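User: Could you check the structure of this?
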Amino acid sequence: MLLPSSPLRVKSQLSSRVDNTLFSVSPEQNIDFDGVSFFFAPIDRYLKGNGVEVSIHMRLRALTYKNLKAFYFACPLLGSAQAYGQDLSREMRSAELLGSGQAGVTEVRGIDALFYNPANLGMTSTIIGDVVVASPQIEASQNGLSIYRDVRANKSMLDIVDSALGKPVSVGIQNATGASFRRTAFALFQRADLNVAVKSNAMTGIPEATASSTVRLGAAFGLGRAVIGRSVSIGATGIIMQKAEAKLAVSALDAQSQIGDSGGESLFNDALKRGVAVGAHVSLQVSPEDKSYPDFFVAARNIGMVYSVGGKSPEDRPTAELQTIDAGISFKPGTKNSTSRVSIDVRDILNKSKENIYKRLHLGAELNFSNVVGVLGGVNQGYTTYGLFLNSKLARIDAGIFAEELGKYPGDIKNRSYYARITVGWTK
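Assistant: Sure, the predicted structure tokens are below.
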């Protein structure tokens, strides 16, 4: 996956007063941000309005660990941040499921099945299923877009920080290339996640920053086979994955001393953990030929996904992927020209994550017209989701809005986000 990246060179002094604390960027200090370029145009205008000359040079670069570094050091542009916990982390996320409450794993097909339900590969009747040349997907929280609009409106940094206090910001970017065939599929994939938010210290009132981000890239190969007619199928996906993750905490008061002339290079390198893991997902799907009966699946995820390779010591390796068992059921009434489904899925039914049941419960529905147009809706962790897809066989567009609970219970910390995916290739 290629992302635009932009090195920024700050050539004069920028000073801001926040909560009676003066902090500044020294003249001629170099700060590199290898991140998503659309943030930088309005930021450039804002900085120039405050007497700072910023030069932006655009180029394309493959998403690497340098982009992970960029995610963090874009945080001072957003103010300060506190990271919140997320739903169970995945190496890839299905756009279709995001729109339907993240429920409906029984219906996931193509290369998406590799990451959710490989048993569905055994239900494929055609020799060639989907051929995906590229499928870039982005998820961005409303709070992050609000900050972006404030910057474009040339609001002061103090106003931007103040409006962002207590609001989580998240961004997810992914891409996959691969193909599915009768009983098998493969994919090369890459995903990056950033989670930040803004909080003031209860004692001093000074903004404090914490952020967490993860970059995953790897390859997946799956096999599925029907074992009882075409009603029962089993499947497995083998995955080799490289992961880099980091967590940082910086207060506005200490930002200059901790980031320093290196632009935070040493701070980031100290926090970065890297590793390689090999593991598997295994699932079973029951799809009765009589469609008046529901479909059912159960999947064991992240078997053996421990990062035992990489880093100078185990402490330098990323967090192991949590091994879970997921299950779900779908009812699929339909007509001659349309199909529909109503799904109920439960993630981590053994609760290895120690999360509230409402955070692991997902409800969703889909109305599909000849697989050309689809309308989706659902409830994810207590919040409504909506989606739409258009499929022309050579390209498919998915878009919608969803929400996740980043606190302990539904209603604690709502994070509403938009998503969009474009799949180019041959899609059934």
